[in-house]
Amino acid sequence: MSQVFARARADGRAVLVGYLPAGFPSVAGGIAAVRALAEAGADVVEVGLPYSDPTMDGPVIQAASDAALRRGVTTADVLRTVEAVAVTGVPALVMTYWNPIERYGVDAFARDLAAAGGAGAITPDLPPEEAGPWLAATADAGLDSVFLVAPSSTDARLARVAAVSKGFIYAASLMGVTGTRERVGAQAADLTRRVRAVTDTPVAVGLGVSTPEQAAEVAGFADGVIVGSALVKALLEAERAGADPGEAEVALRGIVAGLAAGVRRPEPSVPRG
């Protein structure tokens, strides 16, 4: 995944990371949706592992994840979804809370994720202090381990997270849960600056980005722009409107294309790198 960020930096732009949960609107529909992200311009695809007790997800992602769980999505389905992204040549990450990994088996999950072609995983509720077994498993499997920082993180905490993160560091743009917002907030640029003071690992900003204009704003100071709720919302609205899968996919591709254009015209703010 480091190569993706390096190429984008050489091109003077940020990386677009798109998120969708596996299994929504169905396993097959979710696979088609993540492939659409990869084909429409996402540089990295986050595949969400639906979980019954998400602490970071807002109402949009929760609604889709709950539907996927009710429809019987499994961890094996998540890995199949990862594989569908990987065959496109776009790196695929799993975004998962710790409990599903622990239940599956730490070493087994890392091994099977790598076998599916996954590039790594984001574990939002796993503290670095308790990540020893996971770091060992991901190192053995050749996976990137992505950890989160927030505006409330102390400088010492930023350094601790930076020391264990591989691929990139996920910077939450503000305090709270995921969801689209009218403004990303000035905290994101300051947090990015603080992270850069302790590491050369790329910084990708998430929580709140939903428009090409916001993507361009964040691309002006961050190495990556993470978009989730806006993409999930498109699938939810299509399902509620009774649209066929083809229509939903067209809508999704249009949103991703706009966001991809946004990260390619960054608004100068804090220099990347």
UniProtKB/TrEMBL annotation:
Enzymatic reactions: (1S,2R)-1-C-(indol-3-yl)glycerol 3-phosphate + L-serine = D-glyceraldehyde 3-phosphate + L-tryptophan + H2O
Highest taxon listed in the record's lineage: Bacteria
Active site per UniProt: E46, D57
Swiss-Prot/TrEMBL keywords: Amino-acid biosynthesis, Aromatic amino acid biosynthesis, Lyase, Tryptophan biosynthesis
Record's keyword annotation contains Glycoprotein: no
Enzyme Commission number(s) of this protein: 4.2.1.20
Pfam families membership: Trp_syntA
Metabolic or biological pathway: Amino-acid biosynthesis; L-tryptophan biosynthesis; L-tryptophan from chorismate: step 5/5
Subunit note: Tetramer of two alpha and two beta chains.
Function noted in UniProt: The alpha subunit is responsible for the aldol cleavage of indoleglycerol phosphate to indole and glyceraldehyde 3-phosphate.
Family named by the database record: Belongs to the TrpA family.
Record NCBIfam families: trpA
PANTHER family: TRYPTOPHAN SYNTHASE ALPHA CHAIN, CHLOROPLASTIC, TRYPTOPHAN SYNTHASE, ALPHA CHAIN
Protein name stated in the entry: Tryptophan synthase alpha chain
Gene: trpA
